[in-house]
Specification:
Layout: E1 3-4, H1 15-23, H2 35-48, E2 52-56, H3 59-70, E3 76-80, H4 84-87, H5 92-97, E4 100-104, H6 112-118, E5 129-135, H7 148-161, E6 164-169, H8 172-179, H9 183-187, E7 192-196, E8 207-211, H10 213-225, H11 234-246, H12 251-265, E9 274-278, H13 283-292, E10 295-296, E11 298-301, E12 304-308, H14 315-328
Parallel strand pairs: 1-10, 3-4, 3-5, 5-6, 6-7
Antiparallel strand pairs: 2-8, 7-8, 9-12, 11-12
Bound molecules: pyridoxal-5'-phosphate.
Pyridoxal-5'-phosphate binds near residues 9, 139, 196 and 207.
Length: about 325
């Protein structure tokens, strides 16, 4: 059987989740009449300690709505290297919201001092900086958890400079499980937060953009503008509610499996569920050879592959994948 370690987005809905989806009460969510979507939005707002949450089809749309809510055309956005809403969203920040991006720090994570260095003033020479985005965990940095002091430093700098702050928390659930901290504490101080149900939590679809009632009122309009308003979406939201209830605590298993993989492959110990492995031969060739033996991985650099653990790979599968990769990565 194939062991797919390309991403935690490859999971299939579990039997219990499919049952919850089949039983979901639904209505037309464009009229705000889908009870299951409404319940999901209330539950996520409560978990994140914010006034409101809005269900959207994808993490990319949640991030793009955040850019639209927090900026105006011609504004500058500070982001860490490899940030998803800069690197992997098809240039949407420029195309839809007219933003330009400036990197802070290196490797994805950064500090308050980095924000102060990167910020541009609001005068006629510059694209004025309006927003700082952080990603926690950081995907390209290997599922890294932001040190709490750096989050506070960035938020303090943002406040002092009059900037807004967005948290891409696609995998914030992993941070909460790994650190024992509540999602609401991890999200405190941000104006907008995006979270995903379709990564480690295992739902087939769905993310939420979260924040104040006023900002979510505007987010609602951008969701419509970007084509993300759905009708009987309760069938999908039911999967998200099920995932939050039944598949959140088990993220600890993914973290343990990732550590196991890293140990066997001599890679750096991961913070969460993403392992970066440096390969002796070319990463593309390693990926092709591993595929021929039934292990799927992604190349993320000329000599680097990424392995992501999730609910469809157990410890035994990880051990088998590690044996194959250890041979093929030479
Ligand atoms: C950190 C991060 N943010 C946002 C997204 C976008 O999510 P989606 O694939 O649902 O658009 C991803 C996807 O992997 C991600 O890793």
């Amino acid at each position: 059987m194939t062991i797919d370690l390309r991403s935690d987005t490859v999971t299939k809905p579990t039997p219990g989740m499919r049952e919850a989806m089949a039983r979901a009460e639904v209505g037309d969510d464009v009229y705000g009449e889908d009870p299951t979507v409404n319940r999901l939005q209330e539950r996520v707002a409560e978990l994140l300690g914010v006034e409101a949450a809005l269900y959207v089809p994808s993490g990319s749309m949640a991030n793009q709505i955040a850019l639209a809510v927090n900026t105006r055309h011609g504004d500058d956005v500070i982001i860490g290297e490899g940030g998803h809403n800069w690197l992997y969203e098809s240039g949407a920040g420029a195309a839809l919201s007219g933003c330009q991006f400036t990197f802070a720090g290196s490797g994805g994570l950064f500090t308050g001092d980095d924000v102060r260095r990167a910020a541009k003033p609001d005068n006629h020479h510059h694209a004025p900086t309006r927003l700082v985005c952080i990603e926690n965990t950081h995907n390209r940095a290997g599922g890294r958890i932001w040190p709490e002091a750096d989050v506070r430093g960035v938020l303090d700098a943002a406040r002092a400079l009059g900037l807004r702050a967005h948290l891409d928390g696609a995998r914030l659930w992993n941070v909460a499980v790994a650190t024992g901290r509540r999602e609401r504490d991890l999200a405190a101080g941000f104006d907008t937060i995006s979270v995903c149900l379709s990564k480690g939590l295992g739902a087939p679809v769905g993310s939420l953009i979260c924040g104040s009632k006023d900002d979510m009122w505007r987010a609602h309009r951008f969701r419509k503008m970007f084509g993300g308003a759905m009708r009987q979406a309760g069938i999908l939201a039911a999967a998200g509610l099920y995932a939050l209830e039944h598949q959140r605590a088990r993220l600890a298993d993914d973290h343990a499996n990732a550590r196991r993989l890293a140990e066997r492959l001599g890679a750096a110990a991961p913070d969460t569920n993403i392992v970066m492995v440096d390969t002796a031969s070319e990463a593309d060739a390693v990926v092709a050879r591993a595929r021929a033996e039934g292990v799927l991985a992604n190349a993320v650099g000329p000599r680097r592959i990424r392995l992501v653990t999730h609910l469809d790979v157990d410890a035994k599968a990880c051990d088998r994948a590690a044996d194959i990769l250890a041979r093929q990565a030479r």
